[in-house]
Amino acid sequence: MKKFAAIMFASGLALAACSSDSEPETDPVEESGSAEDAMTDTQESEDTESSEDSQGVSVDQGLFDVEVTIPAGFFEGEDPEQVAAEAEQEGIEKVTVNDDGSVTYKMSKAQHKEMMAELATSVEEAKTDILESGDFPSIQSIETSDNYDRFTVNVDRESYEGSFDGFATITLGLVGSFYQLYDGADPDNYEVTLEMTDAETGEVFDTIVYPDALEEMGEE
User: Fold this and answer.
1) Beta-sheet pairing, 192-198 with 150-155
2) What's phi and psi for 49, nearest 5 deg?
3) pLDDT digit string (tens) for 181-213?
């Protein structure tokens, strides 16, 4: 599962290179339930609705399994059949390459939970890379919410505003979005907020919101 999570994470980052005009289609997904969970989860399964969006990841959680459908745009430059084969080698129960190029992964609830934990580890590693690589010296620390929908980036403001360190915010915006989408966020209604904060004064001097920021970049 760890290798699979890494592959999915890398695919999500690759999406940033896609044209803003690209609108890959997403198939609806379903998640069925188990008898063991019926006592506590029946009402939840009745209220669960699959979400669809041409630019998002579709996740539906029920009782037995979790199905996650990834749009074709996440696999730019890759062979979907090879991606599917590698996922199955990593223990994913069933992988289907759809006619539109999207890929549907069927896994147990336990596998999905494990994958989300590994994606969280990947986000933390991305934060560490930003702070320790030396490529973004003005960034002093990064704080996050539990589900990575909010990042507080503490910087040396003078150094930050005179540098290209703002490129690091793209990585944070993408990994935060990627985590939320795989966790079932509505592709039509989610936000990742980055608050750029002066480490000396505590002042928030800039707020960046994804996916709006990507759309704005595509318009420039």
Assistant:
1) parallel
2) -125, 135
3) 778 776 667 899 999 999 999 999 999 999 888
Strand pairing partners for 141?
A: 154
DSSP helix/strand/coil, 139? strand
Average of per-residue pLDDT across 149-161: 97
Q: Is the C-alpha dihedral spanning 18, 24, 28, 32 positive or negative?
A: negative
Give the C-alpha separation, 173 to 168, whole Å.
Answer: 9
Q: 139, 160 in Cβ contact below 8 A?
A: yes
Structure tokens, 125: 């590693």
User: What is the rounded CA–CA span in Å between residue 179 and residue 184?
Assistant: 9
Token digits for 142?
A: 């990064």
Q: Which helix (H) or strand (E) holds 38?
A: helix 38-47
Task: Note the pLDDT tens digit of each residue in 122-139.
Answer: 999 999 999 999 999 999
CA proximity to 58, closest of 184, 174, 175: 184
Q: Cβ distance 78 to 11 under 8 Å?
A: yes
Taking alpha carbons only, the member of 3, 32, 31, 190 closest to residue 114 is 3
Terminal-to-terminal C-alpha distance of the chain: 38
The model's pLDDT over 112-124, given as tens digits with 9 standing for 90+, comes to: 899 899 989 999 9
